[in-house]
């Protein structure tokens, strides 16, 4: 079954979901940064262990995961109808719904909305959707300052850096580095500030408080949108979100079209799954929900921008579409051994880690094997830790394998590359026991490479990629097949 | 019981000792082992690299190899990864190319194919296999055994019953070693970084031997340990379980 929402085909390349270099090239830089690797290793190990403990407290965790997965599958199957229902309910309660086909359109709509208020400064709740579209940069180009109010997001913004984690954008920074960033970029910061976490947090708090009290416009993302009521929900830990959602006159929310849940009670499932999976908390400190506008209470102008930006393309792929089930908890990042070493920037997109490896190339589509996003499905050992951690049971390893096959198949019409030839040759040899046995015999010539030690330490390209750091055993004197023939020949028939 | 050995292409060509040990162990336990002679490779490398069209003939070949030749009750492979491929990929590949009858046949073969520790503990009902192995050993539970097959602590149940052996817990045991098939070549630097951490954990145990149920992961870990000239050896689970006082070595 395919689902068509009526949006024209998305043009790949808009927004921050494609980097400029392949994963292996980008990872190489991160791997040589020992401080970065230490920061990442320490942070992911801590949060990983905390999550395991928080999840173990819940007796029906597996049932919750299955419920979350089933709810999301239902949303994907009925997305057009649920979106229309959501729009009707937002409108009926005094909100305005806008539809954005891609990142450019979303940015343009939001910039126009901010301009109409006459304000040149907005406060922002941390939002993956606005990072995806590159909204901050777009606002800045149009003379509007966007101030991130999530502490980690603020660190990244002041450091003129990029987030490297969905939940903990400054995971790659330690407190000494954060102190330096504050000293350099935070107005009015105490020059004698220490790197004590409390001192750093208080400085950020004082800085942000001034912004909350003066801002007329806030921009948020949304964790969930409820089709039945037109309600939006944001889940956060610092209270900055609540400030943004309640104090300004105008609230603009950018939400990916996949973020819907059908009914208000469905939130029950996700409000249990999300905090334990993301921050290893039983409950997140602040859950804000709002429905339309209410005279004299909270924002008086409310807009929601519904973003496609490639999502209907993902929806059209039956195997890959469950990537849209993602609730952005980042549990898969924290358990991924590849993310732990290479860090988030290596993925090029604002969606790093295992979910990014399947979501980004599906959102943008890929233009051939030189497309940086084409390297993402290969940025995994298929160890499966991400699937086990995922609160909505997205089978990331299977989707990675599926996307790899799509990638290879999409290039079959061209000239075969080295990998194609190697795979075809291996397939030919393995396709017959006689050819395989002959190849084994031929490989024994390799015994000389092993010399007296029996270890091969250097091979030509591409095998040099192996021998750069690993020895290879020389082929044995006798293959298993030969041993079997020698010891069990008469029993074979 | 009549047990068909799925030797796996890697063990057949490069690590025959894991397959010969599997045969010796099962025969010692009183079972008849047969070797379907047509078998080659399960095609996992092709599937995992995106070459499913190239994997399809290998899936068909594997199914035919185990349907033809000597009859058998159950099949066993000394590899969690290859059994994972047979169980979770063969029918999927067949269906991708619309071959429903091959998918059904593949499911039949898969339903009777076990990883070594699964066969011993779940099917044959033994944890004490009469092994003797007087060494300090640490065990790496390979990703596909752990998460594709859910063998849980079956290998450890078997190892704990080995006489003369000191089993030392491996820190961060469930972290991937960084092999991942062609990942080790395509993302060589990341793979090496993962390997470095795995080796550090292995060395921290002070064990003489690092064991696992997959020759592929051991090839990776062992290749790194050899490059370091660490003196720590990698030995397949089957070899430890096949060792006895009488033989005293892996002859």
Automatic annotation (TrEMBL), chain A:
PROSITE patterns: 4FE4S_FER_1 (PS00198)
Domain Lactate utilization protein B C-terminal: 418-487
Residue intervals of the 4Fe-4S ferredoxin-type domain: 323-394
Top-rank taxon: Bacteria
Domain LUD: 85-306
UniProt-annotated stretches for the region Disordered: 1-21
Keywords linked to the UniProt accession: 4Fe-4S, Electron transport, Iron, Iron-sulfur, Metal-binding, Repeat, Transport
Protein name (record): Iron-sulfur cluster-binding protein
Native source organism of the sequence: Rhodococcus pseudokoreensis
TrEMBL record, chain B:
InterPro entries: Cys_rich_dom (IPR004017)
Pfam families assigned: CCG
Protein name according to UniProt: (Fe-S)-binding protein
Entries under PANTHER family matching the protein: LACTATE UTILIZATION PROTEIN A, UNCHARACTERIZED PROTEIN YKGE
Top-rank taxon, per record: Bacteria
Naturally occurring in which organism (per UniProt): Rhodococcus pseudokoreensis
Domain Cysteine-rich: 3-85, 137-221
């Amino acid at each position: 079954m395919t689902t068509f929402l009526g949006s024209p085909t998305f043009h790949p390349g808009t927004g921050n979901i494609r980097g400029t270099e392949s994963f292996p090239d980008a990872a190489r830089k991160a791997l040589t940064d020992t401080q970065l690797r230490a920061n990442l290793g320490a942070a992911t190990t801590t949060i990983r262990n905390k999550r395991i403990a928080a999840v173990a407290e819940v007796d029906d965790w597996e049932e919750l995961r299955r419920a979350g997965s089933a709810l999301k599958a239902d949303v994907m199957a009925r997305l057009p109808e649920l979106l229309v229902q959501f729009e009707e309910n937002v409108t009926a309660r005094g909100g305005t719904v806008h539809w954005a086909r891609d990142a450019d359109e979303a940015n343009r709509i939001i910039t126009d909305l901010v301009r109409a208020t006459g304000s040149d400064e907005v406060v922002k709740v941390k939002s993956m959707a606005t990072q995806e579209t590159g909204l901050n940069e777009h606002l800045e180009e149009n003379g509007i300052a966007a101030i991130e109010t999530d502490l980690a997001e603020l660190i990244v913004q002041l450091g003129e850096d990029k987030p490297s984690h969905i939940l903990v954008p400054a995971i790659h920074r330690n407190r000494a580095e954060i102190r330096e960033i504050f000293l350099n970029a935070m107005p009015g910061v105490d020059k004698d500030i220490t790197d004590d976490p409390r001192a750093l947090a208080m400085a950020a708090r004082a800085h942000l408080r001034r912004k909350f009290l003066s801002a007329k416009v806030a921009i948020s993302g949304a964790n969930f949108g409820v089709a039945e009521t037109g309600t939006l929900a944001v889940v956060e830990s610092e209270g900055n979100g609540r400030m943004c959602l309640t104090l300004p006159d105008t609230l603009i929310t950018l939400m990916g079209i996949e973020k819907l849940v059908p009914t208000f009670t469905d939130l029950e499932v996700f409000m249990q799954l999300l905090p334990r999976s993301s921050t290893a908390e039983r409950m997140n400190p602040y859950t804000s929900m709002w429905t339309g506008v209410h005279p004299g209470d909270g924002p008086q102008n409310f807009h929601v921008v519904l973003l496609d930006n490639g999502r209907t393309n993902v929806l059209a792929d039956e195997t890959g579409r469950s990537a849209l089930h993602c609730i952005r908890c980042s549990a898969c990042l924290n358990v991924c051994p590849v993310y732990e070493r290479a860090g988030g920037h290596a993925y090029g997109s604002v969606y790093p880690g295992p979910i990014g490896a399947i979501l980004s190339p599906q959102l943008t589509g890929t233009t051939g094997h030189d497309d940086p996003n084409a390297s993402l499905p290969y940025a995994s050992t298929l160890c499966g830790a991400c699937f086990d951690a995922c609160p909505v049971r997205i089978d990331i390893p299977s989707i990675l394998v599926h996307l790899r096959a799509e990638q290879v198949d999409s290039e079959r019409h061209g000239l075969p590359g080295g990998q194609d030839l190697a795979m075809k040759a291996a397939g030919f040899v393995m396709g017959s026991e006689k050819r395989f046995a002959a190849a084994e015999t031929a490989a024994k010539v390799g015994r000389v490479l092993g010399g007296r030690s029996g270890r091969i330490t250097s091979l030509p390209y591409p095998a040099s990629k192996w021998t750069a750091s690993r020895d290879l055993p020389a082929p044995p004197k006798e293959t298993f097949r030969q041993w079997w023939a020698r010891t069990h020949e008469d029993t074979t028939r | 019981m009549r047990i068909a050995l799925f030797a796996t292409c890697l063990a057949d060509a490069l690590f025959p000792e894991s397959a010969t040990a599997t045969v010796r162990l099962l025969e010692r336990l009183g079972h008849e082992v047969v070797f379907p002679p047509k078998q080659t490779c399960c095609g996992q490398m092709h599937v995992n690299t995106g070459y499913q069209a190239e994997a399809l003939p290998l899936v068909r070949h594997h199914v035919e190899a185990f349907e033809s030749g000597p009859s058998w009750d159950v099949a066993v492979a000394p590899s969690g990864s290859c059994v994972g491929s047979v169980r979770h990929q063969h029918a999927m590949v067949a269906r991708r190319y619309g071959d429903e009858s091959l998918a059904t046949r593949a499911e039949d073969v898969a339903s009777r194919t076990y990883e070594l520790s699964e066969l011993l503990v779940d099917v044959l009902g033994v944890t004490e296999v009469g092994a003797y192995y007087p060494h300090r050993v640490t065990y790496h539970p390979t990703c596909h055994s752990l998460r594709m097959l859910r063998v849980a602590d079956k290998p450890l149940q078997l190892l704990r019953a080995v006489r003369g052996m000191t089993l030392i817990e491996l820190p961060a045991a469930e972290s991937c070693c960084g092999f991942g098939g062609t990942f080790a070549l395509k993302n060589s630097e990341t793979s090496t970084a993962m390997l470095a951490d795995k080796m550090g954990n292995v060395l921290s145990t002070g064990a003489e031997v690092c064991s696992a149920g997959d020759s592929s992961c051991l090839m990776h870990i062992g290749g790194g340990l050899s490059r370091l000239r660490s003196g720590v050896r990698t030995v397949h689970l089957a070899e430890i379980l096949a060792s006895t006082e009488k033989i005293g070595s892996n002859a």
